Amino acid sequence: MDARPLLIVDAANVVGSRPDGWWRDRAGAAARLRDALTPVAEVGLPPLLPGPAEVVLVVEGAARGVPTVPGVRVVAAPGSGDDAIVELVGAAADRRRLVVTADRELRGRVGALGAEVQGPRWLRGGA
Questions:
Q1: pLDDT value at 59 more than 70
Q2: Taking all residues of the chain, what is their mean pLDDT, rounded to a whole number?
Q3: Which of 53, 113, 118, 125 is 20–30 Å from 44 (CA)?
């Protein structure tokens, strides 16, 4: 059993929460988010998420080709990113899980499985 908390980031939702031109290069925007998350694996996002943490970035659509890097595992959703996130949360029921998304339906689905949820603004304040 991994004792580290699991941070799962909904890449499409977090990237889409800031109108910075991400729609012109979805994969590039997801890669920038991934790179910004790399320090979180070691230091976490105190005080809510002390490090170290396992960081998983869930990508979908045009961002599916973004590779994993040390500190951030990238999961390419074969279909719905939301469904992949729910699967990850369900598979890690024995540990603390924190999901970053603003998607109301997804928040309800992962919350029903016992995961904590924060919005993109929280992540940007710490990552």
A1: yes
A2: 91
A3: 113
Distance, CA of 122 to chain centre: 12
Beta strands per DSSP E along 1-127: 6-10, 44-45, 49-50, 54-59, 72-76, 97-100, 116-118
The verdict on pTM exceeding 0.85 is yes
Q: Looking at residue 69, what DSSP letter applies?
A: B
Q: Report residue 77 as tokens.
A: 């959703």
80 vs 39, 84, 93, 127, CA distance in Å?
Answer: 27, 6, 21, 25
- Helices (H) and strands (E) counted in the chain, each on its own, are 6, 7
Alpha-carbon 36 to chain mean position: 12
**% of the chain exceeding 70 in pLDDT:** 91
Torsion of the alpha carbons at 78, 79, 83 and 89, rounded to the nearest 10? 10
- DSSP character for 34? H
Please give the pLDDT value at position 15.
Answer: 84
